[in-house]
Specification:
Layout: H1 2-6, H2 9-25, H3 29-36, E1 40-49, E2 55-64, E3 72-79, H4 84-100, E4 106-113, H5 121-135, E5 144-148, H6 154-168, H7 189-208, E6 216-220, H8 224-235, E7 239-245, E8 248-251, H9 258-268, E9 278-280, E10 292-295, E11 314-316, H10 325-334, E12 338-340, H11 342-345, H12 347-362, H13 368-393, H14 397-416
Parallel strand pairs: 3-4, 3-5, 6-7, 6-10, 10-11, 11-12
Antiparallel strand pairs: 1-2, 2-4, 7-8, 8-9
Helix pairs in contact: 2-4, 2-14, 3-14, 4-14, 5-6, 7-8, 7-12, 7-13, 12-13, 13-14
The chain binds nicotinamide-adenine-dinucleotide (NAD).
Nicotinamide-adenine-dinucleotide is lined by residues 75, 148-151, 193, 220-226, 244-246, 282, 296-298, 318-320, 346, 349.
Length: 420
Amino acid sequence: MKEQLLQHPVFKMAAEQFDRSADFLGLTEDVRERCKWPKRLITVTIPVKRDSGETEVFFGYRVQHHLSRGPVKGGLRFHPNVDIGEVAALAMWMNWKCALMGLPFGGGKGGVTCDPRTMSPHELENVTRRFASEMLPFIGPEVDVMAPDMGTNEQTMAWITDVYSTHAGHLVPGIVTGKPVILQGSEGRTAATGHGVAFLAARALKRIGVKHDRATAVVQGFGNVGSHAARTLESYSINVIAVSDVSGAIHNADGLDIETLMQYVKDTGSVKDFPGSESIDPESILTMECDVLMPCALERVITEKNAADLKCKVLAEGANGPTTPNADAIIEKRDDIFLIPDILCNAGGVTVSYFEWVQNLQRFQWSEQEVLSKLDTMLAQAFDKVVNYAKWNKLPNRVAALSLGIKEVADVKSQRGLYP
Ligand code: NAD
């Protein structure tokens, strides 16, 4: 299985990043092996009746990287390319992210190989409910708590809550996070990841001496993370000059009106042909001149092919794993880009998920203001911790962030010892 996982390009990348930090930390072979490999890799089949009347069998996955520090926490992705290797890599990154943020969770991730854009709401509901029921033996508020990711949203989480609660015989709101507020979701959760990405990008700009009202930003991916990141940037007077989604890319040198664009995407399903913008080549978006570049879509979009051509001052990784280790090497050599690594940059989502889980356990609702101010405080602390650790140890920001997270997990594993 180890070899099989290492053959997967995304898992291989997560493993290489882990090895680099483990070398820096000088982890013993025993702790290193226990930290690196996932505790549980679960694959299920999901037979579902399509609207046509035919039955189709989908594959679903859940990887629980480790449970040493608490329940696993991580998103559920619906995408045609999802497979066990990708899910295992994402679960590993979640681990280090939760530990870096000081949250009492291990890392988890799930996915169903399907294309939600070609499925009706009824079919999506059937896939979600059957996946949730197949997962019943493996999840619970103290074991594994899912959240939305690519292709899923708060409606998906509401269906999972319903399946789990129906089986429990009572409402169990702590089974997922990212639920609708009416179902005891948290205020501020939907915007949290994107808000955090923009908050940290603004902090990085300040650190390198770029004034917000003169700054420009480019965002790849205009889904949950990208759109809310763009909206928060706009609220800081940072001009978002280009965005893209799976259908294309748009540009306006004077800045796009993000609120109107969000409504446009809601109405039409994509950013394409947004009035007042020109269409540009989606490939070119990553190498546009700007102060902040935010990849907020897929993994491995910044590679050895385009890393030398980036023209941003801050690279704020909203997506998980957007930059390959080869691209990292080029960026480190250039030394003119301030990188906010994914496990720090998009940690706003899991942090507010933690707040939601705590509120659910307490049966208590916090206000949006309370949530966002707690979030900003925790993100600012984590940002400073990573930047200072990087400086003291002469490390790139990514290695610093990963090392801080991995060390936390390694220390807990060492302290707990090996059973039996
Ligand atoms: P989403 O499904 O809401 O949005 C994804 C966006 O990416 C869409 O606009 C889609 O059109 C676009 N996209 C897809 N393929 C593209 C391509 N080839 N080129 C350009 N755009 C493309 O997903 P999301 O929840 O916003 O997640 C985006 C990323 O952020 C993922 O890597 C996810 O793991 C990560 N993330 C999400 C959260 C969260 O709370 N949702 C938290 C942490 C990290």
